[in-house]
Design a protein that fits this description.
Pfam families: DAO. This protein is of the alpha+beta class. It has eight helices and 20 strands. Helix 1 packs parallel to helix 5 (196-209) and helix 1 packs parallel to helix 8.
Length: 430
């Protein structure tokens, strides 16, 4: 997917203490007005925190959390984003699928927040005219092992009240003649696609309409919990940005929310002692694109999961313009900056896709984009009740006051973003 920045950042050096709601941009404006921190003395010395909430990370989850909290706290929220625009990492380099919530197991945060988030996301799309479409999804089985996986998913979906049903193969062939399924097709009618950039722009607009403060190109270099117990008197953050010169600016907030995505473990490690530090693993997903020509497909197609495969298989998705995308695969890399498409994986992609789309014209398949998924372990996603599953980590950290920590926020993070935001709000306000 072409990486489209959500806002064209213009140099605007403005102290956070001089915030003005009169300059709050609306969705109709072409530019976001980012606020870079200048060298301003923290007001904590005068007994008052600069902000009620500091949200670290301006991806889709951070944006959803920030707009919720800005509305709740009368705008006393700063959203810290290390890049010069919001949503430039995992949030803009994914399949843009609205997931149904049928893969992640009973009682998991991924299941519960995906199902709730899906409902909220469709509602938000309808309210704010965010481009989206309920395409539905077919999960196809070519052998007995895959058929067993489909039966398991079907049973689990019924258990959690997510609508799915098996299709008659002859009828399915009439609907999507190019799709091959030797054993069975399970349809998920509530799955869809969304313009993730339009979603993030909407969330950003809602955040700034609530007088939230956006600080772009603002990298958090250090975090200090104040008081005893830790955080009981707030938090001090050292933020390095274009307006602060060589020395970071120090700001304070009553609470901090670590929603930094690919940098979330690094933020976690700034706070905790050495014995509690964690390691981040980076799962790169390569995507290859295909023009909306022949064969034509209008439904998302996923292969049924098989044991030992690190993910949900190379699936067929599409954007709202009809351009077909294949991916993501799972390639473990050492750096979150490794975003070049690994073209050596193209033959493997073609082999996987031709199992369910045999008429694929190999000459029209091209490398497109890659994204990185932040993971707490080198374990792939598994269906329903399988092993090796790693859930979302969303916790008020023990031993600290006012710190909500979000780790391992990968798929279905986009679908779940609004439900995650509601959960964070509940953690802070109930």
């Amino acid at each position: 997917m072409p990486l489209r920045p959500l806002s064209a950042s213009r140099p605007l050096i403005q102290a956070f203490s001089a915030r003005s709601s009169s300059s709050t941009p609306r969705l109709t404006q072409p530019f976001v007005r980012p606020r870079y921190f200048s060298s301003t003395v923290s007001r904590h010395a005068r007994g008052k925190a600069d902000f009620t909430h500091a949200v670290i990370g301006g991806g889709v989850v951070g944006l959803a959390i920030a707009q919720n909290l800005a509305r709740r706290s009368n705008g006393s929220v700063v959203l810290l984003e290390r890049h010069s625009a919001v949503g430039t990492e995992t949030s803009s380099r994914n399949s843009e699928v609205i997931h149904a919530g049928i893969y992640y197991g009973a009682g998991s945060l991924k299941t519960d927040l995906c199902i709730e988030g899906k409902k909220k996301l469709y509602s938000l799309c309808n309210k704010h005219n965010i481009p989206h479409r309920r395409t539905g999804k077919w999960i196809v089985a070519q052998n007995d092992t895959q058929l067993q996986a489909l039966e398991q998913i079907h049973s689990f979906a019924k258990e959690i009240n997510v609508p799915v049903h098996f299709l008659d193969l002859a009828d399915a062939k009439k609907r999507e003649p190019a799709v091959r399924a030797e054993k069975a097709i399970l349809e998920s009618p509530t799955t869809g696609i969304i313009d993730s950039h339009a979603l993030m722009l909407t969330l950003l607009g809602l955040f700034e309409e609530s007088s939230g403060t956006l600080a772009l190109a603002s990298s958090v270099e250090a975090i200090t919990p104040l008081g005893s117990p830790a955080g009981s008197e707030g938090w001090e953050l050292s933020v390095l940005s274009p307006g602060s010169g060589e020395a970071p600016t120090k700001i304070t907030a009553k609470t901090i929310i670590n929603s930094a995505g690919l940098a979330a473990v690094s933020i976690h490690n700034l706070i905790v002692p050495a014995s509690q530090k964690k390691e981040m693993f980076y799962a790169k997903g390569n995507y290859f694109s295909y023009p909306p020509s022949t064969p034509k497909v209008s439904t998302l197609i996923y292969p049924a999961p098989e044991p030992g495969h690190g993910g949900l298989g190379t699936h067929l998705t599409m954007d709202l313009g009809g351009r077909i995308k294949f991916g993501p695969d799972v390639e473990w890399v050492d750096s979150p900056d490794d975003l070049s498409v690994n073209v050596s994986r193209l033959p493997q992609t073609m082999d996987e896709v031709k199992k369910y789309l045999p008429e694929l014209d190999e000459t029209k398949l091209e490398p497109d984009y890659a994204g990185i998924r932040p993971k707490l372990g080198k374990l792939g996603a598994v269906a329903a009740h399988g092993t090796g599953f790693v859930d979302f980590y969303i916790e008020k950290e023990k031993g600290y006051q006012g710190w909500v920590n979000l780790l391992n926020i990968e798929s279905p993070g986009l679908t779940s973003c609004l439900a995650i935001a509601d959960q964070v709000e509940r953690m802070l306000y109930t």
